[in-house]
Amino acid sequence: MTSTQRHRLFILITLGLLSAIGPFSIDMYLPGFDAIADSLDTTVSHIQLSLTSFFIGIASGQLIYGPLLDRFGRKIPLIVGLVIYIAASISCMLTNSADYLIAYRFVQALGSCGGMVASRAMVRDFYGPRESAKIFSLLMLVIGISPIVAPTVGSFVISRWDWHGIFLVLAIITTCILLAVIFFLPESRGSNPAISLMPRPIAQSYWQVFKTRQFFTYSFAGGLASSGLYAYLAGSPYIMITLYGLSEKQYGLVFALIASALITASQLNRYLLNRYSSEKVAKVALMVQSSLGLLLAILCVAGAINLLVMIALIFLFLGSQGFVFPNTSALALAPFSRLAGSASALLGGLQMACGALSSGLVSYFHNETTVPMAATMAGCACLSLFILLAGSRLPAGTRSDQSHR
Fold first, then answer.
1. What is the mean pLDDT of residues 294-311?
2. Which end of the chain has the least Cβ crowding within 10 Å, N or C?
3. How far is CA 28 from CA 75, 165, 248, 288, in A?
């Protein structure tokens, strides 16, 4: 391997780790819901709100980072965000109040979303639209490892120490990533003083991005498809551990198995793109995902599902997501150059807003059954497919006139 290839590999790994901070922050503490609730003298449903607050923080925080990344370059806002994340993680570790935990998780999310926005913008800076879809697939490999590693690490930490240690580990990991960013990650785009940070120009920039048909269609299609994943994240600890009686370790193993579907599909996507367009792959994947979601919901409502069937359907459901995310992300960002940071932020904000809504719905309609999770997953997939099909039938005219952006 040449030095250039090693440098390219290091950049990809660093971007992947930045993208994985948010997912790792979600997955690692899921096995500890019961332990956290017992320790803070509250209910699991109350602790689930810390997951919702995390989604809200990522959704809103990304909109702040977008203009900052376009104005000051990628690295400075990214470094600030990582420092905020580390401080919030330590606060989560030290808290003895569920309400404070919910608040600190919101701040933690504000820090983590800097890495998510910057990594997507850097992919857009470094690569063209078609190659970006393949790069996003590679990043999915790193992101996808977090659901395998994080619950296992979380379960180990809880069994050896207690849930407070989870947030200490997160702070240590992010400190290592921060050092890599400071000393080794190159700046992909310099500062641009022409980008205004006043509210009105920022709003105009976001509106310019939002009203682009290609961005609107693929950002919402991808965001709603991802929401099925977040509904699963919110509902699976109670369903797997409480309803089906799995231990925390067994839950971690099931979580890892299901996450492997996401990883495998995202890597197969790279090879499919050599023969098919991103649009075609995303469309077929959403059709499959919608069918699986409906089947899962019907079986849960009818009470005709067992643990093995549920795991199999969720495995295939999230496998479909491995084809949806890289392609819809690349297609949503493709029209933009000057406003790549704002487009990346708005894309991530919309995705996480949908995720916060879906996880909130699962918590709100919690009725000690599998139905809220399954119904939310099915609804997200079907609505995503509808938006993709409707958007593709609108008159063309937004794909070839975006070079000025």
1. 93
2. N
3. 26, 11, 12, 29
Q: What's the pLDDT at 1?
A: 65
Mean pLDDT (the chain, rounded)? 85
Q: Which residue has the higher pLDDT, 31 or 304?
A: 304
Burial of 270 (0-12, 13-18, 19+ CB in 10 A): middle
Q: Which domains does the chain have, with CATH numbers?
A: 7-185+212-392 (1.20.1250.20)
Q: Would the pLDDT of 112 be above 60?
A: yes
